[in-house]
Every structure is written in C-alpha cells, then in structure tokens.
C-alpha cells in the first residue's frame, strides 16, 4: 500500500481522535496535515499508520497551540499525551470513529447545510470545491459556511461527545444527508480515479447506520440506495473508459446479492409505515435494477415515483430528474415542457447553470427532439464544468455524434 493510501485510510480515525483530544476542529485538521506531511517526508514505515499519525498529530497540535500563546493549555495537553499510550477507543453504541464524529459534527445548533458541509470537509476529507458542487453553490460561499460552522462549534463550546441515543433523532437528517452527498461525490467517479475508498466507506457506514437504527425507515432507505448504486459499479465504464448510462449497462456485471440486500432493507423500511425521500429514491433505483431479473424497466412507475419524491423533497435537482423521467415515460416533448417550467424561475436557472446534470438533461431531451445543435451546445456547457474522466469521454462522444 502506498504512503498516500496509508494517510487516506488513517484520516477518519486520526481526525476523530485528534478532534476529541483537542476539542477544536481546526487544530485537529492542521495537526493531522502536519503529521501526514512528516509521514511522507520522513518515509515512515509504521505497522499501524493511524497510531503513528495520531501520536504525531498530538505533538504537532501542541506545538501549534504553543505558537498561539497557549502555553498553559499546551502544558496540560502534553501531560495528557504522556498518559495516553493507547489509541483512543470509543464506547458503545458507536465504536466507529468516522460515524461517531459525523454524529458529533451534525449538532442541531448548527444550520443543516452548514453541519453537513462541515462533516463532509472534516470527516470525509472532501475538498471545498467538491462540497460546493454537490450543494450547487460557489466555492467561496461554501468555504464561508464551513468556517462559520467551525466557529460555532468552538465558541458555543459544543461537546465532542456522542449524545444519548434518545437525542440521535434530531441529528439523523443531517447524518443521512452527509452520507448521501459523500456517496454522490464518490459515485461521480465512475472510472475509479479516486484513491480514497470513499465509495466503499460510505456504503459501510450506511449499512452500519441501518444496523444501529433498525427502526428508522429512512436509515434503511439510505442503506438500500447506496447499496443499489454500488451494485452497478462494475458495469459503469466501457472498454474505452467512458461512462455507461444505467439503461445501457450490462446487467450480468451487476452484483445481484447487493441488489437483493437492498430489497430486503426496503422491505424492512416499508414495515415501519414512515415513507420518506430515501425510500423513494431507493425504490427508483430498485425499479431500474429489475432489468437484471426480467429485462424490463417500468418507466411509468419511475415517473410516478419522481412525482412522490418532488412532494417529499422539493428542489431543483429533483425537479430536473423528474423532467427526465417524464421524458422517458411520456415522450421527450412532455419532458422538455417540464424542464421549461423549471427554467421559468431565474433564481433556479442561475443555480443550475453550475450543475452538470442540468446541461446533460437538457442536451438529452433536445437530442430526442432532433434539435441537435442546441443539444450539442448543452453538452458543451456540461463539459466546461470539469466532469470526471469517464463522464467527460461519454459526453464528448455524445456531442461529437450530434455534430457529425
């Protein structure tokens, strides 16, 4: 395993331990970064990289605290380091460091989007630019939100402790959204260019959350949603490295066991009689997955499910996906009419201009209406928004076919 992979794999455990130790997210992140730099520069070879990075991070953090004129705090912290010879372990009910810290970061005193962004930055290690993209906002705006959230954590004295189980409910929406958006970022990387194992890690955490909260229908729904997306990973790229749309994927490459597990999670969720957006989104993906069993996809059912999703989770991206689904079920003309309804709101269009899916959907519907020049222009706009390599190859091929 490479040194970089050692650091990526150790990051969640080390950040969690350092954050609990210093009770300051900025110090924890800076200390980890300094320790990681030392790990690379000195060519450290450790049997347990996480342990080395935690120990080194504590020293680096204490050095930084001294430089900030915090001599007394540093002295106290140094005594703690001498006493703590073991890696921090956490008691039940959540032993996993990353999931535990996600719950801690998703404190209800912080605005929902800000706490989710904070969790994505601190625990998942996502660049601010990627977080801004999934929130369909500017990098500067997202940076400001994360900074304010960190300040809130510090100034309000928010405890780095897992709340009692009875209080998990008020944090659950943010935890689910954190995992959803983390997986969205990972899923965009169809070619597997990321070397941080984010896709597998989010799937693991979603499954763990479903196990920890078996009575929460939406936790089961998210686990199903992520599991269904993961089930198709081996079919998402063709021999040339280009992305393959779900409707064109070779179903023999899909993971049938993962699909069946997702179906079981959805069955459990349905028994709770508490419908929610994650269950609907997972059901949409399960409807696509039917093609692996009987070769059929019920486009009308998918369009109707998007009607339900718009009611449960209104927003421009859901409305956009609904327009595409309507175009598949009822014809491109009707789908494009739905898209034009969305475009009547100038504020929404301003946001969507920075979202690749908007331009891709527009190009797809225009192509089906034989408006090839306009479709190619829409795909060109998508290409200017820095898609991952597999998606870029796919979009370039579609654009070239329209222009040829």
Topology record:
Blueprint: H1 3-22, H2 25-41, H3 49-67, H4 71-83, H5 97-105, H6 112-122, H7 128-134, H8 139-155, H9 169-187, H10 198-212, H11 217-231, H12 256-271, H13 277-289, H14 291-294, H15 299-312, H16 316-330, H17 332-343, H18 346-352, H19 356-368, H20 372-383, H21 389-403
Helix pairs in contact: 1-2, 1-3, 1-5, 2-3, 3-4, 6-8, 6-9, 7-8, 9-10, 9-11, 10-11, 11-12, 11-13, 12-13, 13-15, 15-16, 16-17, 16-19, 17-19, 19-20, 20-21
Characterize the structure shown:
By secondary structure, the chain is mostly helical. α6 (112-122) crosses α9. The chain is built from 21 helices and no strands. The protein is globular and about 65 Å long. The two termini are 45 Å apart.
Brief sketch in words of this structure:
With 404 residues, the protein is mostly helical. Helix content is 70%, strand content 0%.
């Amino acid at each position: 395993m490479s040194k970089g992979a050692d650091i990526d794999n150790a990051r969640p455990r080390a950040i969690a331990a350092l954050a609990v130790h210093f009770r300051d997210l900025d110090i924890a992140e800076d200390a980890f970064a300094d320790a990681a730099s030392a790990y690379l520069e000195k060519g450290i070879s450790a049997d347990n990289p996480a342990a080395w990075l935690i120990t080194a991070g504590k020293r680096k953090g204490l050095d930084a605290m001294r430089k900030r004129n915090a001599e007394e705090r540093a002295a106290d912290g140094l005594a703690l380091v001498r006493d703590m010879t073991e890696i921090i372990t956490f008691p039940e009910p959540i032993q996993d460091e990353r999931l535990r810290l996600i719950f801690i970061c998703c404190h209800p005193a912080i605005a929902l989007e800000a706490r989710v962004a904070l969790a994505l930055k601190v625990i998942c290690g996502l660049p601010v630019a990627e977080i801004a993209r999934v929130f369909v906002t500017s990098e500067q705006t997202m940076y400001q939100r994360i900074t304010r959230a960190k300040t809130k954590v510090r100034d309000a004295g928010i405890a780095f402790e897992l709340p009692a189980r009875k209080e998990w409910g008020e944090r659950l929406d943010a935890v689910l959204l954190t995992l959803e958006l983390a997986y969205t970022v990972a899923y965009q990387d169809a070619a597997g260019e990321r070397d941080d194992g984010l896709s597998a890690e989010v799937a693991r955490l979603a499954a763990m959350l479903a196990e920890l909260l078996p009575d929460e229908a939406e936790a089961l729904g998210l686990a199903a949603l992520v599991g269904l997306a993961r089930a198709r990973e081996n079919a998402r790229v063709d021999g040339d490295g280009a992305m393959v749309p779900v409707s064109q994927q070779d179903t023999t490459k899909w993971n049938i066991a993962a699909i069946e597990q997702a179906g079981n999670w959805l069955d459990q969720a349905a028994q709770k009689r508490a419908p929610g957006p994650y269950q609907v989104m997972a059901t949409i993906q399960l409807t696509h997955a039917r093609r692996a069993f009987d070769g059929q996809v019920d486009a009308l059912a998918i369009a109707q499910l998007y009607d339900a999703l718009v009611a449960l989770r209104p927003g421009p991206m859901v409305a956009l996906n609904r327009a595409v689904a309507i175009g598949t079920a009822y014809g491109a003309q009707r789908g494009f009419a739905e898209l034009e309804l969305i475009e009547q709101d100038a504020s929404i269009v301003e946001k969507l201009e920075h979202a690749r899916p908007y331009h891709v959907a527009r190009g797809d519907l225009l192509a089906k209406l034989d408006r090839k020049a306009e479709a190619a222009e829409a795909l060109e706009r998508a290409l200017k928004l820095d898609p991952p390599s597999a998606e870029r190859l796919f979009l370039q091929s579609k654009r070239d076919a329209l222009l040829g």
